[in-house]
Amino acid sequence: MENNLPVYKRIILKLSGEALLGDKAYGVDVSVINNIADQVVVLWKRGIEIGIVIGGGNIFRGSEGEELNIDRATADYMGMLATEINALALQSSLIAHGIDTRVMSSLSLVEIAEPYILAKALSHFKKERIIIFAGGTGLPFFTTDTTAALRAIELKADAIFKATKVDAIYSDDPLKNKNAKRYEEISYTEFLSKNLRAMDSTAISLCRDYNMPIILFNIKGRDNLLKAVLEGVIGTIIKEG
Fold first, then answer.
1. Which domain holds residue 113?
2. How many angstroms separate the CA atoms of 214 and 208, rounded?
3. What is the 8-class DSSP label of residue 137?
């Protein structure tokens, strides 16, 4: 690692549910889960403490509720339950890799996950465990991006790594606008003022208030997570300008 690259001691990895789809239209692609787990294990062996916030969009998104005549709050809770399924799938893969992994949930699901308690989470890190945070914030109308921001700030992480299906933040949809600008770096304020959609604005505002850097990168590819964390090969970094 080059000397000018940041050395991370503790990170939050934000995985969208869509990142787990692979080439499938629905559910979890086992090869994608195992690829992510392979890379997480490499980081863990480097001594990096890792908390993973997981989404549920591959199974159900709260925003889908309207077309099904489901109240938005109820739909959001359904989405939170979807994150629990993804968390258990990823936990199983990490355990199969020999890594002690705990799921902590914002929802009360004691049969499958521990309740999220800050002191307990810090204890897990001290015991060299990986933590998967499920259930979003536990409240409707908030995204798992916001959960990632909250957990990163509470746990005093060094950065958030947001794994997506795109390679960077653009000023517009690059598939529709060939002149869309690609950002290698952008400030929180510029991101908000341009009303960009790559991450929830509430999460961006929280990260701005606490100067929490966000690295957005494409999860597709064998070692993209490792390249983002260890080599600084990134899509876009959002930080104070």
1. 10-239
2. 10
3. T
